[in-house]
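## Example pair
The file below holds two records. Each record gives the amino-acid sequence first, followed by its structure token line.
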Amino acid sequence: METNLFLDTTRDSLMLGLARGGQMVFETTQSHDSQRYHSTLLLPLIQNALSDHQLTLKDIAGIGVNLGPGSFTGIRTGLVIARLLGQFSPIQTFGFDAFELIAADERYRGQSLTILLNAFRQQHYHAALQVSDSGIVHWISQPQVLPNETPPAITTKRCLVDPSLEGKMDFSDIAPTWLGLEEPFTPSAMAFLLLKQPDRYRLPWERLLPLYLQLPNITVSKKQPPCLQSNVNNA
């Protein structure tokens, strides 16, 4: 039964999990006043997690990482580890995006969602997704980077919003659900999504890039507007 390691360094809290056969066998969340310390915390966390389960890197079949959006510095912390392991060992590499990891949470099964995340520089990410009853995530519209003064166009019944956008956008016409109050443990979402559609998230190590440099692996109508602006320095 394969054991996979999952990392999320894109948020204020660093998340790490081990899954065997799609089931979590270890999970931890660590936080610091600055996301810049994720790089200091990550390697000891990995080492301790493996040691506590009598494992070494040779026992890890794959590593999954959140490609963003999220902290500019934090994204790179997880990517460096995943790319190094993918390049210099037989470990498979998997890339996920924050939109699908949020949508995959059990609370949103069978719902359509609009997700707004902070892109900084007075901008935000806007994406819409549909979640099946079984938890498969389908894209309704591609992620876009929009100015915060643009009124949010909500076409779904539920809108999930990064709390850091409060006071920066006009939400008077919608009733947003603020993310972060019950923040999902994203390594569990990675294990779940990988179990459902492994080929969708499998990427060679050289294609593990921050989301603002590439589109997530999605299929939507060609009528949808173009996606990300590569000049955004904060994903």
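Second record, same layout:
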Amino acid sequence: MFPADRLTLAHWRRTVAEMYADVRRFSETDPRRAWNHFRACRDDLFRTHPQSPLTPARRADFGGLPYFPYNPAWRLGGTLYPPQNRETRTVILPADGEFRYSPVAEIRFRFEDEPLKLTLFWIEGYGGGLFLPFKDGTSGSKTYGGGRYLYDTIKGADLGAGETDIVLDFNFAYNPSCAYDSRWVCPLSPPENTLSVAVTAGERI
């Protein structure tokens, strides 16, 4: 990666972090406004930014990312518990080398009275970061088959996590970069993070 590429990547991360700071602030009183802001900012990044996962040809006629309609029922709170399995996972990413992530908490939550859980990961390495990928009943049909992300705090994606609880607003679920072009290789959701329900919220395929 050339130095200029690293500088544009730093700018992408800074812009995303600023967007999520707005999302957390707006969500305190108006989650739908936060979601509309999120969509507008992401569309602008995908259309104009040098680090866009879209090829230049696809950016030329880009009309915006597709989402399910906003659904307040999918804005949930989760409770954090110690993870049952602390095994570190390793994925080889061609551009970055080893990507290592370890369970840091088990998230328990409910949707329509059904108990659900996800594993929250910590990205190993300098600085670290929270990472929450997931798959669900829409994966491979209405949404990307490899799953979607809710948290990737190294890239600035942070809806709000405390010491014992976490915001799970699936309206903000988004695709990894590899969903847009085969030149990208991404860490995908592990089997344990496959939800038994269809999450009809967030970004679509």
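Notes on the second record: The chain has a mean pLDDT of 92. The chain has one domain: 3-193.
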